[in-house]
Amino acid sequence: QKEVEQDPGPLSVPEGAIVSLNCTYSNSAFQYFMWYRQYSRKGPELLMYTYSSGNKEDGRFTAQVDKSSKYISLFIRDSQPSDSATYLCAMNSGGYQKVTFGTGTKLQVIP
Amino acid sequence: NAGVTQTPKFQVLKTGQSMTLQCAQDMNHNSMYWYRQDPGMGLRLIYYSASEGTTDKGEVPNGYNVSRLNKREFSLRLESAAPSQTSVYFCASIWTSGGVGELFFGEGSRLTVL
To answer: Testing the interface with B: which of A101, A105, A106 to mutate, by most B Cβ within 10 A?
Structure first.
């Protein structure tokens, strides 16, 4: 069993839709939870991070962590074609510790 | 501000050939990483270097060697390439603050082994 599980999609939604992306994990030591966005033929870029359980909002993006269920989510409101990318969840126990990635979910927002 | 620079961007090798992927960062980060990305497998850590002069194995180190040449540069060598090493390789460096580590990635090196 993988430490981090993520539905690979692809996920196709119309412009303006609310998108929900999710990951589950098995390692209780994980404390920092991140979402990376990767455009085609580019390297991943950090989109958001959260520490421990709770919600964090940044513009149209909201990250949620439920440590009791070992479940994290990324919500995108008012999705735009420019949001079309692969979204990777990532997590670690902090600092320089090894970052473990999900397989990524490919999102397409159709105009 | 270049960030993380990888060379080459594309390479085709024959089975058994050797090559080195080069990576350099200009952000004064201490730690650097090499990942490979394959369909359905996500990003898997090959090797990392926590600081200049140190290297450690990651999840999938077999068939690879690394050198941390100085603080800026971290190279990945394939001594005898195999088709299973066909992949996209990403170099990254990490910035940490308050416990959170942000990985900065290069644009990737696409390697095909025939």
So the answer is: A101
Q: Mean of the pLDDT values across residues A26-50?
A: 93
Is the predicted pLDDT of residue A95 greater than 90, yes or no? no
Could you give the 3-state DSSP secondary structure of residue B102? strand
End-to-end Cα separation, chain B, in angstroms: 36
Q: Torsion angle of alpha carbons A51, A56, A61, A62, nearest 10°?
A: 100
pLDDT at B114 over 70: yes
**Closest approach of B80 to chain A, Cα-based (Å):** 26
- Chain B residues touching A32 at Cβ < 8 A: 99-101
Whole-number percent of chain B with pLDDT over 70:
96
pLDDT in tens, B54-76: 999 998 999 999 999 899 999 99
CB A75 within 8 A of CB A62: yes
B110 Cβ neighbours under 8 A, 6+ residues apart: B9, B10, B11, B88, B89
Instruction: Report whether B107 contacts B23 (CB < 8 A).
Output: no
Single-letter amino acid code for the residue at A79: S
